[in-house]
Every structure is written in C-alpha cells, then in structure tokens.
Write a structure and sequence with these properties.
By secondary structure, the chain is of the alpha/beta class. It has a single domain, classed as NAD(P)-binding Rossmann-like Domain (Rossmann fold, 3-Layer(aba) Sandwich). Helices cover 34% and strands 16% of the residues. It is built from seven helices and ten strands. The chain has an eight-stranded mixed sheet, with helices on both faces. The two termini are 20 Å apart.
Length: 222
C-alpha cells in the first residue's frame, strides 16, 4: 500500500462529484488536498471541503502551482478554459491524472464530443506539454473510483499515458485505493479507446437505470 504522504500536495481542479471522490481517496492516504476553483466561497466548494477533512481551496493557478500531483476533474465544457486558467507552466514535470470524458449533451443523451480521432487525454497532454498525463478512472462512476468493490468482486482500471514512471505512480495509487493492479493500455493515444469504453458504461447505466457496475477483464495475463 502507498505509504502516508503528509508532505505531498494533490491539486484537484474541480469540486464536483469526481473531484470530491478522488480527493477523499487521497486524503485517506494522508495526502494534502487543495481544490482549485474559481470561487473558493461557493456552496459547492464548501460542500467539497466538508467532504474532505483537512482540504483547502484556492484559485486554479495557486492550486496547480502548490500541488506535486494534479487531478483534472473539470467538466468537458470547461476543460480547456480551466487548464489555461490554472497555467500550463504550473504542471511542468508533474503527474496529472485525467479522469474526464468528452461528453456532449446538446442533443439529448450524451455522446462523444470529438468522435474517435482525438481524445480528452490527448488534449490535456497538448495543453500541458510539460506534464506527465495519465488517463485513469474514466470508466466508472465517481462513487466507485475509490474502494471499488462490487458484489461480483473488484473491477479493473485501465490507464494510458506516455510516461512509464507516471503510470507506475498511478498504478500504486490505484492499488492503494482498492483496485487490482491496473492494466496499462499504452501511450496517451489509447485514451481514444478508454473514452468510448466510458460510453459503454453510460449506455448500460441509462438503459438499465443502474450505476453500480464496472468493467473486469477475465483471463488476465499473470
């Protein structure tokens, strides 16, 4: 299990259900959490802080500069604007975890906003060229991002990224969160596989009105 990290700060950009869920996971491991938000006094920010004891909130750029690790938990519609506000230079050399999905709700049921020739993971890497971006946690709903045990067992987490050391760090974190050893799908371009996989999750959830499900790869190679 990942050892306590009292001296390591995790900047969580966004204070919605995804950001709060992952922030709680980091706080349980004794990482210091700082939420990056445009309004540190909003009711949404206060709710996130109440859910993660010991966390604090700051403007996006301050949070990004303070964190040794960052989590991009922004809605797709505000992703690019949010990262620019946080300052790409503030992420240089750092692990950045991207759990976002590029979802378009304009025509009713969600669909992929950028098709299959690009991905949110690749966009985050382009916007933060000095960062080590790892796609992870995007194929399960927020309540199961940490302690993901389901009645059928523990699901599998798929990740993608260009930097092997960064992916190894995410694997260690995910294992500490309660996942089996994550499955590395390769460079960040594999986000083009992971984000459509999230659409499979969404489709099943909508058709069955059931969110307590996740993916598992049977017959994993030892």
């Amino acid at each position: 299990m990942t050892p306590p990290r009292d001296d390591t700060v995790v900047a969580v950009l966004g204070n919605g259900v995804v950001g709060t869920a992952l922030a709680r996971g980091f706080a349980e491991l004794r990482y210091r959490v700082i939420f990056g938000t445009r309004d540190v006094r909003s009711s949404k920010t206060r709710a996130a802080l109440a859910a993660v004891p010991g966390a604090r909130a700051a403007a996006p750029a301050e949070a990004a500069a303070s964190g040794q690790i960052a989590v991009v938990a922004l809605p797709w519609s505000g992703l690019e604007e949010g990262l620019r506000a946080a300052g790409p230079q503030n992420f240089a050399g750092k692990l950045v975890i991207d759990p976002t999905n590029p979802l378009d709700f304009s025509a009713g049921p969600p669909r992929l906003a950028i098709g299959y020739t690009d991905s949110s993971g690749e966009l985050v890497q382009r916007l933060l060229p000095g960062a080590h971006v790892v796609k992870a946690f995007n194929t399960v709903t927020a309540p199961y991002m940490v302690h993901p045990r389901l009645p059928d067992g523990v699901p599998d987490l798929f990740i993608a990224g260009n930097d092997d050391a960064a992916k190894a760090q995410v694997m260690e974190l995910a294992t500490a969160f309660g996942w089996r050893e994550p499955i590395d799908l390769g460079p960040i371009g594999a986000s083009r596989l992971l984000e459509p996989l999230a659409m499979v999750w969404i489709n099943y959830a909508r058709r069955n009105n059931h969110g307590a499900h996740a993916f598992s790869l049977l017959g994993r190679k030892d």
